[in-house]
Write a structure and sequence with these properties.
Elements lengths: L1 H32 L4 H34 L7 H12 L15
Length: 105
């Protein structure tokens, strides 16, 4: 009975530290790999950086479009821009003109 009693006593003494180690391991893994963990935070920061770069490109494109639109407004009409758009949309050209089409938006 001495050996069985000793094993039972040591097992009971080891249960609390073992459960504590399991809890620390569980929360440690969740901290690194969970939905709101460290790796998810790094991934989200990378996505934010890509989105900011895309935003910068879109803002530049928008500024160019706004500038071209401003040139076609009645209060500040640019005749060259009007002529360019009319020729582009309607396909008109004089007989002695050479028309070069480019793919600019």
């Amino acid at each position: 009975m001495g050996l069985a009693h000793e094993v039972t006593k040591r097992t009971r003494a080891a249960i609390a530290p073992f459960l504590l180690i399991l809890m620390v391991a569980y929360f440690g893994i969740s901290f690194v790999q969970g939905d709101r963990g460290l790796l998810a935070w790094i991934r989200l920061n990378d996505e934010i950086a890509v989105a900011k770069a895309d935003l910068g490109e879109v803002q530049v494109q928008r500024a160019l479009m706004e500038h071209r639109t401003q040139l076609l407004r009645p209060d500040g009409l640019d005749l060259d821009m009007l002529d360019e758009r009319a020729r582009s949309l309607l396909g008109f050209a004089d007989r002695d003109e050479i028309v070069l089409y480019t793919s600019s938006n």
